[in-house]
């Protein structure tokens, strides 16, 4: 079973995000970078499948030089090798651009299964995985909380509003990890040592034969015109009251008469 | 260069998702600004029978694609059908609701059509006859105004954010012949939670509980029942096994935009706020006056939720 996991490096969810001077990007100097939390579930699931069935787990990531940290972390968790698309020309690509580059790599390597995160928590786009599946011409199943492979068949639970759909398909497929799939392991110290020696290939846009006119910040279809901070709420009104009954009466009065929401 | 606005509706078992009405209403508003036509598509069994329901939200034309192949949602069949219809209509803008399946379909469709897609938008405006889409990024810490090059442009709108308005008109109905290839995924079963459970992303009111509940959601359940609300949870409440993953609100849970969000025994961690900060009104009930949730709330109650909630329940009952 050859499994490829799509991993993106993103700012830690605790990060304070600040708008840069250009008004269309964020300040990146003081950020702590981590593997996208949903991609961690994807890596973990790939490792569990390999542990049960044998095979390889390859980490594929596009991003600037520091992305290598995220790839190394996934290798330290236990993945076998990494592929890093690192090319200044590709920087700032939108979802379509990123997907074209990832798909170009995938067209050249063997795989039975691709696992991605259901969304990257930087742009919150929910797009790259589906686009990669489309460009490869393989089925996608998004927001998966459980999978089971028997031979060439995969059975998955997809979260839908109000429940789950149980879906079957023949491999190869791409699925995206939703929370609930597993609890990711931590990289162990020996794992971190071993990761340093694991193979890691670097690819450029030229290597992949992707038209440079399709990628990079200039060729985004979705162009950022301005970033702004969300409107601030007016400051909180603390409800007064001697006891729970008075507090409750005052709150319900406000919600009923002032906000008119109940 | 495409023209007109095209709305993809979503239905399950003969009922439209609320976000479909939101998408149509917004489509009508934008079509009036742009002085162009508004077309909607309904796909799936019974599509034709459902078409009249859409009249009051103002489409000029409704396409119906009714085929057994579309009985269950599969990405393959729906993408084939909708992509075919979009190509034939050649619209400038495609609007879809960013439900779970809406996200699945729109992302695949955008790749098929090589179209720019603004996912999970919370506002759309037209400036100098150009569309500008506002979408949260970084879990809502930043709002981004984006423009899209080329046509069609695609936008998936966040459920519960856009206003539903009724502007009835008589619609032209057009049946389209379905050309869905073979779907390569097969829905073998659908396990739905009890039918009367209100979906978090569509709920008007959410009562949420965190670690402060100690796992006792009785009062939260009761309050939500009398308010017709859905029950949400912090990640801690889910990790502790008190609630299901599907109840989790936040950066690694659901993103919700109810009219009223009542957070009980939730501290207000940044990852939780990411999931509920676009709620219209936020009430926080917490025994710690320093809890960060109070900085994001409209109304704050300092108190023990086990005492305050029963009292609130009594007060709400008086209203009914
Ligand atoms: C990558 C990542 C992703 C995450 N994603 C999410 C997410 O999607 N959603 C999410 O919620 N969290 C998420 N978290 C976790 C988040 O950081 C917090 O740990 C979590 O939200 C805390 O949950 P809580 O508020 O229930 O618990 P706590 O922070 O422990 O707060 C409990 C609160 O209850 C109050 N309290 C206690 N007893 C009572 C009482 N009797 N009456 C009234 N108040 C009482 C306390 O004063 C306290 O403020 C994520 C974390 C990480 C690292
Ligand atoms: N630059 C990237 N490199 C590798 N994988 C990516 C990249 N961007 C997105 N992905 C994958 O696609 C998923 C969805 O991302 P997004 O569409 O950006 O929300 C992520 O969870 C990753 O698995």
Write out key terms for the chains shown.
heterodimer; A: 262 residues; Rossmann fold; two-stranded antiparallel ribbon; globular; B: 320 residues; alpha/beta; 5-stranded parallel beta sheet; 9 helices; binds flavin-adenine dinucleotide; binds adenosine monophosphate
Contiguous low-pLDDT stretches of chain A (5 residues minimum) are: none
Q: Name the ligand types.
A: flavin-adenine dinucleotide, adenosine monophosphate
Structural class of chain B: alpha/beta
What integer value in Å does the Rg of chain A equal?
A: 22 Å
Name given to the CATH architecture of the largest domain in chain B: 3-Layer(aba) Sandwich
CATH level 3 topology of the largest domain in chain A? Rossmann fold
Q: Tally the helices of chain B.
A: 9
Mean pLDDT of chain A: 97
User: Spans of chain B with pLDDT under 50 lasting ≥5 residues?
Assistant: none
Under CATH, the topology of the largest domain in chain B can be stated as: Rossmann fold
Instruction: Give the fraction of residues assigned to helices of chain B.
Output: 25-40%
How far apart the termini of chain B lie comes to 54 Å
Helix-strand pattern of chain B = EEEHEHEHEHEEEEEEEEHEHEHEHEH
Quick description:
The complex is a heterodimer of chains A (262) and B (320). With 262 residues, chain A is α/β, with parallel strands linked by helices.
What does this 3D model show about the protein?
The complex is a heterodimer of chains A (262) and B (320). Chain A has 262 residues and is of the alpha/beta class. Chain A has two domains: 2-219, 3-Layer(aba) Sandwich (Rossmann fold); 230-262, no CATH class. Chain A is 29% helix and 28% strand. Chain A is built from seven helices and 13 strands. In chain A, the strands form two sheets. Chain A has a nine-stranded mixed beta sheet with strand order 9-8-7-10-6-1-4-5-11, with helices on both faces. Chain A has a two-stranded antiparallel ribbon with strand order 2-3. The radius of gyration of chain A is 22 Å and the shape is globular. The N and C termini of chain A lie far apart (55 Å). With 320 residues, chain B is of the alpha/beta class. Chain B has two domains: 5-175, Rossmann fold; 200-319, Rossmann fold. Chain B has helices at residues 18-34, 47-54, 75-89, 100-113, 218-227, 235-239, 270-276, 293-296, 305-319; strands spanning 5-8, 11-12, 15-16, 38-43, 61-65, 93-97, 117-121, 123-127, 130-137, 142-148, 153-157, 172-175, 185-192, 205-209, 230-233, 260-264, 281-286, 299-302. In chain B, helix 3 crosses helix 4 and helix 5 (218-227) runs parallel beside helix 9. Chain B is globular, with a radius of gyration of 21 Å. The interface between A and B is large, with 80 and 97 residues. The complex binds flavin-adenine dinucleotide and adenosine monophosphate (AMP). Flavin-adenine dinucleotide binds next to helix 6, helix 7, strand 17 and helix 9 of chain B.
